[in-house]
Amino acid sequence: MPLALHIVALISLALAIVCAIWIAQDERKRPQHMWIMNLVWPLCALFGSVLVLGFYLSVGRAPLKTEQHHDHHGHQHGHGHDHGHDHGHNMSGPTMKTVAKGALHCGSGCTLGDIIAEWLAFLLPAVAVAFGWQWIFAEKIFAVWVLDFVLAFGFGVAFQYFAIKPMRDISRGEALKEAVKADAASLTSWQIGMYGFMAIAHFWLFPQVLGTELRTNSVEFWFVMQIAMLCGFVTAFPVNWWLIRIGVKEAM
Length: 252
Prior knowledge:
Protein name: DUF4396 domain-containing protein
Low-confidence stretches: 72-91
Organism: Thioclava kandeliae
Number of strands: 2
Strand content: under 5%
Region (Disordered): 68-92
Structural class: mainly alpha
Distance between the termini: 41 Å
Domain DUF4396: 97-249
Mean pLDDT: 87
Strand order of the largest sheet: 1-2
Order of helices and strands: HHHEEHHHHH
Transmembrane segments: 36-59, 119-136, 142-163, 184-206, 221-244
């Protein structure tokens, strides 16, 4: 493995972890209005690093707890403020920052699912076998992708449920159905971008160009995964715009 790539991967991962920890700590003093977003921001920082940190500081950071209490008290007396809450729509459709939040909301579930799936299949190869390795797929990566998708979809639906249920006056069953509907297209479009870049890295870039294997227990693998997740964000962005536009997904 080239030393320069190893160093870049170490720096990128370390910086992302620092950003995720900083956001998580900041959210303790400034909890998100929608509690699920307290998980979304640090999880997305694991791949988006300073980009997600900058976006969080720009549009995602909530007021301090004391300010939130004051604002709530003000609303009770009929003179509260909106604090710039973005309702996500204008005459031409959802705003760019609303779509970005929606895509990141999807990406957080993908991130959590992919981390668990990759390490689970690496530490327990029988899991990859159960999902098709050696009897459906000759390449282990395809079986892991199936597991990736299942877990990412499960987390994604859960994350969507906890966004939709508090914002709509509907039953739990209806909220779950709406969550599945909202996450199916969004997650699939994200995974297409992520899988696409991982395939390029796994089958061409590392074996053909660098002459080495991309292994799960290497910092290079997770650095490539960071880039793959950013590719997922790009492919999911237009789909999230459309889903928010037609009202299938809630504006964050």
